[in-house]
Amino acid sequence: SNGTVLLGNAAAFNNTNVSIGGATVLFGSLTSSTFASLAGSTNLALSNTTSQAVALTIGGNNANTSYSGVLSGGGSLTKTGATGAITLSNNNTYTGTTAILSGTISTGSVVVSAGASGLGNASSAVTLGGAASEGTLLYSGNSATYTRGFALGAGGGQLLVSTAGQTLTVGTGNISSTSGTLTIGGAGNTAVTAGLSLGTGG
Fold first, then answer.
1. How far apart are CA 150 and CA 146, in angstroms?
2. pTM to 2 decimal places
3. C-beta of residue 105 within 8 angstroms of C-beta of residue 85
4. What is the structure's pLDDT at 1?
5. Please, what is the end-to-end C-alpha distance for the chain in angstroms?
6. How confident is the prediction for the chain on average, in pLDDT?
7. CB under 8 Å to 110, separation ≥6 — which residues?
């Protein structure tokens, strides 16, 4: 429903499925917040009332959700939850980092165009995997060239292209890892022309 929710505690929604369907969620003076999951269609600004960036962590309850609003502001997005997936179906404009520490982020847009993409408006490498968990990026769009690069955690990551006949080219951004493994798969194709910077375990 319509209305405004003003958060004063970063862990207030730690165990709450947050589905935004008309209400406005504000982060008050917080610079970080955790939602058990995120769904809905209402835009969410990853910045607080003094325009500071908000680091949002989602997915700890392992739910599968879809979010069609726009994530904006200077904040960052971190996905947790080993078995859950979130589909980001809109083009987001947040400028902070994206980390898929565990579970899956699915999007049809990974190339920044007009200041937006499913993974926001940033040039920083997307993190796949945490210290002991695997993170997955599922790309569902048409053929495209991705240039942000990936940073693999020790738990490793997956890059999946779900649409047959489409190719995701991992271009100029490097793929870096000290110990994680990158698994490439899906019904579509993946081509890697980026540089590789791998440690002894990569």
1. 10
2. 0.95
3. yes
4. 58
5. 48
6. 94
7. 117, 118, 119, 137, 139, 141, 144, 146, 148, 168
